Amino acid sequence: MSMKVESAFEHFNGSGFEVALKREAGFVLLACLRQEHEMRDQEDSLREVARQYDGQLKVWILDDYGQDKFHVQHRVMGTPTYLLFRNGVEKDRVLGKLSCEGLLEFVSRNLD
Q1: Are the CB atoms for 46 and 103 separated by under 8 Å?
Q2: What is the pTM of this model?
């Protein structure tokens, strides 16, 4: 499995995720979502964030497979949780379902 993620929007499984995150220069918005039907609108919002901030950050969805270990390591208490990393270090997070506008505001306040 390649550790480099080329796309601005990517589903990512738990295998090798921490290594990839530490190698990533710049901003990564990580979404911890359970792959349930009601989370599809969150994925659509994340795609829009990736589109609007193309070239400025990457948007990754951590798939169910890797979440349990990640949740313990990063003290994630529920889903959805959005974490913004810069150069592999957590910069900010927000817990709970957000509108597209809410996600855009979360990103913009951290990129400025």
Answers
A1: yes
A2: 0.81
Alpha-carbon gap, residue 73 to 82, rounded angstroms: 15
pLDDT tens per residue, range 13-69: 666 677 788 888 899 998 888 766 557 788 899 999 999 999 999 998 876 665 666
Neighbouring CB atoms inside 10 A of 75's CB total 9
Confidence of residue 112 (pLDDT cuts 50, 70, 90): confident
